Amino acid sequence: MTAILRPVAEDDLPFMHRLTSDPDASGEFQWYGFQNPHRLRERWTDNGMLSDDGGALIIANGDDRVGFVQWTKQVANRASHYWAMGLIVAPEHRGQGHGTQAQRLLARYLFDHTTAHRIEASTEVTNVAEQRALEKAGFTREGVIRGSGFRAGEWRDGVRYSMIRTDL
């Protein structure tokens, strides 16, 4: 089976909360402390986690939830915007190519349904697996962003990747 993206359903909320609030499920690079247990439900109730400014979709493999992708609108200037995207895959599904496939699917979805010309993704410099996944998905490494993210008590360097519409 191959991964697909689908809208978030109400019964997906506990799965998403687990991936963002359980240190064992979130993993080394996604653990930012315990999260408000009502935040995801509030977003889902408000707009089903889909809006003009961003959204979230479940990564599914058949009937299995694999993880989820998110994107947010970033203003480039008065005339344009681009998307910043990220994902998290459940620990039991990591290393199977679902993240690479989901990033490729999300990029295609955003280019097909919005006018944005650019999509960005970032990860920590030590997250080599995610860097490989982004490159396999067709993203181009742009460079290191020094001290760009705070996690686990310290500032960490990041790596920025991008894809533009003409890369597909």
UniProtKB/TrEMBL annotation:
<dbReference type="InterPro" id="IPR000182">
    <property type="entry name" value="GNAT_dom"/>
</dbReference>
<keyword id="KW-0808">Transferase</keyword>
<feature type="domain" description="N-acetyltransferase">
    <location>
        <begin position="3"/>
        <end position="168"/>
    </location>
</feature>
<keyword id="KW-0012">Acyltransferase</keyword>
<dbReference type="InterPro" id="IPR016181">
    <property type="entry name" value="Acyl_CoA_acyltransferase"/>
</dbReference>
<comment type="similarity">
    <text>Belongs to the acetyltransferase family. RimJ subfamily.</text>
</comment>
<dbReference type="InterPro" id="IPR051531">
    <property type="entry name" value="N-acetyltransferase"/>
</dbReference>
<dbReference type="Pfam" id="PF13302">
    <property type="entry name" value="Acetyltransf_3"/>
</dbReference>
<dbReference type="GO" id="GO:0016747">
    <property type="term" value="F:acyltransferase activity, transferring groups other than amino-acyl groups"/>
</dbReference>
<protein>
    <submittedName>
        <fullName>GNAT family N-acetyltransferase</fullName>
    </submittedName>
</protein>
